[in-house]
């Protein structure tokens, strides 16, 4: 375990500046991250949609929008707060591991609440608990990368985290489909999420903050620290905005995929199976690019060109869904989406870790970046529902998503401090 000094002035290198992460640690980190994504996307891909349809069959889209929107609002607050708390944690096992454990346990509890929810109110409360808890784990796991991985290898580690992300989407969807019922699906996802964090916690590799180095806590300073002035840190501001736009495009594209297959494509088979097939195809091409692109970016030292072009590829896939509303079109779009998202996932993460304003507040700062992941989940339903219902349907919705993605890709050029 490495001791994190209070500041560079102490004369010791910070973790992540010269160390090389071992394969076992990267594997355990990726598995724990996989568990978090299973806990999120088993529900998001299928279970929440089916549950909304079960409780309110005549208003399933609006119910799903309310539930996922409230959960995303909780996520938007929880991630930076738990990240900041982990920055200040002085536990003997390290700063991040206690939050991985607590978050994993809370996520399981939330999934079990969802499994036996009697109505929409309890369903909403359970999903909010899942988002609250799993964001504690996610914030701690994400902050562990700049803690312990040197900048020249973050593209590679970002690639493996991308593998675990898409693996979580695929495994979560598969578990939810194979379970054969809503309640059983939640229970299976909960068990997987819990078991996935065990190897990472058992390794006990973490940075430790000594009590003497812990900054004095003041509520006013703690709260004001969540505002990072983009005028002082423009690269951080542009990185946040570009990620927000790309995730808004992606959220609009994926949140209504089940309904897109049933209502626009008129998929003849079981729609749950159709979502699983598309997710698997997306995963195949993503897995073929995510690690390779991260390593390639590490070796060249270039980040922006990878992010820009991958964002444009993602937008092209989204536009295909707008103009080619058939099963064949959905298959082709999924394959292209995987290529673009694989490159984007690994390299954009490495880019983000290069523009963090403070080495001592990595958890908080990455948590603020993760608002750009959560806020689109709040906004996407508010945008998608009226577009699908009143403003032209799924063609207009996916064209809008593509346009937003193009904007996010092009604005990456505004980041000046990264090659």
Count of distinct strands? 2
Helix content: over 70%
Approximate strand percentage: under 5%
**Rg measurement, Å:** 20 Å
The spatial strand order of the largest sheet comes to 1-2
User: Whole-Å distance between the termini?
Assistant: 32 Å
Considering the chains and any ligands shown, give keywords for the structure.
419 residues, mainly alpha, two-stranded parallel ribbon, 2 strands
Describe this structure in words.
The chain is an all-alpha fold and 419 residues long. Helix content is 75%, strand content 1%. The chain contains 15 helices and 2 strands. The chain has a two-stranded parallel ribbon with strand order 1-2. Helix 5 (154-179) runs antiparallel to helix 11. It is globular and about 60 Å long. The chain starts with a strand and ends in a 9-residue tail after the last helix. The model is unreliable at 5-18 (pLDDT under 50).
Blueprint of the fold:
Blueprint: E1 2-4, H1 23-55, H2 60-87, H3 97-115, H4 120-148, H5 154-179, H6 182-196, H7 198-203, E2 207-209, H8 219-224, H9 234-255, H10 257-265, H11 271-300, H12 304-323, H13 327-353, H14 362-390, H15 394-410
Parallel strand pairs: 1-2
